[in-house]
Amino acid sequence: MAKPAAVIRLREDEQKTLRQWLRAGTSEQRKVERARIVLLASQGHSTHQIARMLHTRPARVSKWRQRFAHHGLPGLDDSARPGKPHQYDASTEKRVLRQLDQPPPEGYASWNGTLLAQALVDVSDDQVWRILRQHNISLQRRRSWCISTDPEFGPKAADIVGLYLHPPENALVLCVDEKPSIQALERAQGWLRLPNGQAVSGFSHGYKRHGTTTLFAALDIVTGQVIAGHYQRRRRRQFLDFMNEIVAAYPGREIHGVLDNLNTHKPKEERWLRRHPHVHWHYTPTYSSWMNQVECWFSILSRQALRAPSFTSPQQLRAAIDRFVKAYNQKAAPFEWKKAEVHPSSPKKYYADLCK
């Protein structure tokens, strides 16, 4: 004898959820069908009527009526299906990472996925690579870093960040640095014809060197404007000549300069500052020149003005830089510094620490 159909009575929140499943464009079709079955059943339709309306089997309608009557909305989810037991678990991940902290096999300079699988014996190559991808570990990639060892990193960083976030009123805050030995390279350029008949824009691998130039630059952190000066060398004499031009352009105005720790900027006896008491230096922590905003501008200069052209003399190179500075200053905007606290960081010492 057939079981009596389950009586469905929906609460307001259940009815709202089921109708949301019907309206949502991203709902799974199986959940949409189950929602329709329950909604039609709550309206008093019989199992066979619902089956004819939805073009499905009565047994299917009965199944989901019964499931909803006993378990509510969670009953419309698929039941857990037993599958093949997991071959690897969290301990496998730890074993792979711990193995990376051991020296590679004799004769090899570094680990790779195959060597790791051979060393662990019971872990496949695919699982090793899966774990490495999970932690974004590329064994063949070589990265470089520079960690600040300055014991006064905190006070120096706070001083510079304070200038960026709250520059002194009516003062000129400049990020100053130099880009030395910019090469004037002459390359064969133009449209290169490929064997298949297509043409691409580029330049030849070969080049001819026509000398170098050194660029001194000062970035106004408030306006984003750049002051540039060209010199043959990078010495204290050239640096002071560049700063004298800036001081002459802003007579009597208080100037704060952000500098790195190059010996050109930090002589043993600072006589120039004593003659210019309205100029104040702020040095970045050791190995932390990334805090100097003019480094960002040097990157922009290299990508947009120096990488593609060909130069036949240092004078031509300097003229190209001057044209770029003029064009840049016409629409210059300051770099927005948002970080109120800056802390030194260092890479993790062991691969096994990635599991923590």
Would you kindly provide a written description of the structure presented here, covering whatever features stand out?
The protein has 356 residues and is an alpha/beta fold. The chain is built from 12 helices and 5 strands. The chain has helices at residues 12-23, 29-42, 47-54, 58-71, 90-100, 113-120, 125-134, 153-165, 236-249, 271-275, 294-306, 314-330, and strands at 172-193, 199-220, 226-231, 255-259, 279-283. Strand 2 (199-220) and strand 3 (226-231) form a beta hairpin. Helix 11 crosses helix 12 (314-330). It starts with 11 loop residues before the first helix and ends in a 26-residue tail after the last helix. The mean pLDDT is 88.
Output the keywords.
single chain; about 350 residues; five-stranded mixed β-sheet; alpha/beta; about 15% strand; 12 helices
Mean pLDDT comes to 88
Number of helical stretches of at least 4 residues? 12
What structural class do you assign from the helix and strand content? alpha/beta
From the N-terminal CA to the C-terminal CA, the straight-line distance is 59 Å
Largest sheet: 5 strands, mixed
Q: How large a portion of the residues is in β-strands, by DSSP E?
A: 15-25%
Number of strands: 5
How do the helices and strands follow one another from N- to C-terminus? HHHHHHHHEEEHEHEHH
Q: Unreliable stretches, pLDDT < 50, 5 or more residues?
A: none
